[in-house]
Amino acid sequence: MVTTRSARLMSTFLTPVSPQARSGQIALTGLRLLVGLMWLENVVWKVPPDFGERTGRGLFFWTRLAVDYPVFNPFSWVVEHIVLPNFTLFGWGVLVAESALAIMLLTGTAVRLAALLGIAQSIAIGLSVAEAPHEWPWAYMMMIGIHAVLLFAPAAQYAAVDALRQGTVASARRLLGGWGLALTVIGLIALWVHLRYDRKAHVGVRDWELSFGDYNLRGALVLLAVAVAMLAAALLGRRVVALAAAAVAVVAAASIYIQYGHATVWLGGTTSTAVVFVSAAVIGVATWHRLGRPESP
Asked: What is the pTM of this model?
C-alpha cells in the first residue's frame, strides 16, 4: 500500500502536465497576475513631468546607467545620443508602456500582445542596467523567460478579459464581481488606514515592493464607489451600472495623471493608483459589452 502511494506521488510530479490541464492553466493565471503586480510596482517611480532628469534620480538615473556601465555598446550609443537628449518624451513612453503592461496582464486583456511588449521592455531594461553595480543579470533573463511563457502558453483562461470572447454572461459577471471584491478590500484598507492614522494610505507592503496604490480619504471613497458599482452590476447583471463604474474609474485615473507632478493630487494617488483605476475601467467596459450579448444556445 505504501509502495502504491509512493508510486502515485512520484507519478504526480514526474508526469508531464497536459496543455489542457486545469491546474496548469490556473498556475499560468497566477504567474500572469504576479508579473502584472511587478509592473504595477514598477510604474510608481516613473514620475512625470521630468522623470528625475532635473535631480538625476528616478528613471533618469537608471537610464543613464546604460551609458556609465554599457552592456551592449550600440544600445548605449542610442541612449546617450537619442534617449537622454529627449528624455521627457522617453519617460512618457516608458510610463505608458509599463502602465499598459500592468493593466493588460492584471485584467487579462490581449495577453499575448502584452507578453511581446514585456519581452521588449525586459530586454531594454536588461541592456540598461545588467552591468551596473549590485545588479543581477539573471533577473532580466528570467523576466524575458516569464513573458515568453505568457506568450506561448494559455495564461488567459481564468480571470481574464480574453476569456470572455468565448465565455458566458455568467463568466462576465464572475470577472466583474471578482474585481469588485478585490477593489473593495483595497478601498477598505485605505479607508481604515486613513481613519486610524489620519494620513494617506499606501496599500501594500513596501519592504516587498508590492503596491496597490496610494489613497487619501477621497481616493478611498471613490475606489469603494467603483467597487460597489461593479459588485452591484455583477449581482444584478445591469450593463449600465458596469459602464457607470468604468466611467468613474476613467475620470479618477485622468485626474491623477493631470495633477501628478504638477499639483496636489485630489485623490492622493500615484501613477500606480491610476493604473488600478484604469484596470477597473477596462473590466467594466469589457463586461458591459459581454453582458449585453445573448447567451449562446
From this structure: 0.90
Grid cell listed for 210: 508590492
Domain-by-domain residue ranges, the chain? 21-152, 167-291
DSSP assigned state of 155: -
Q: How far apart are CA 283 and CA 196, in angstroms?
A: 31
What is the per-residue DSSP string for 94-145? HHHHHHHHHHHHHHTSSHHHHHHHHHHHHHHHHHHHTTSTT--HHHHHHHHH
The pLDDT-based confidence of 21 (bands split at 50, 70, 90) is confident
Question: Residues 6 or more apart from 146 whose CB is under 8 A from it?
Answer: 31, 35, 118
Q: What is the reported pLDDT for 290?
A: 83
CA pair distance 120, 134, nearest whole angstrom: 23
Q: Is the pLDDT of residue 9 over 80?
A: no
Sign of CA dihedral 55, 58, 60, 61: positive
150 near 114, Cβ under 8 Å?
yes
pLDDT of residue 71: 95
* Average pLDDT score, the chain: 91
| pLDDT at residue 14 greater than cutoff 50 | no
Peptide bond into 154 cis (omega under 30): no
- Cα 246 to Cα 262: distance, rounded to the nearest angstrom: 25
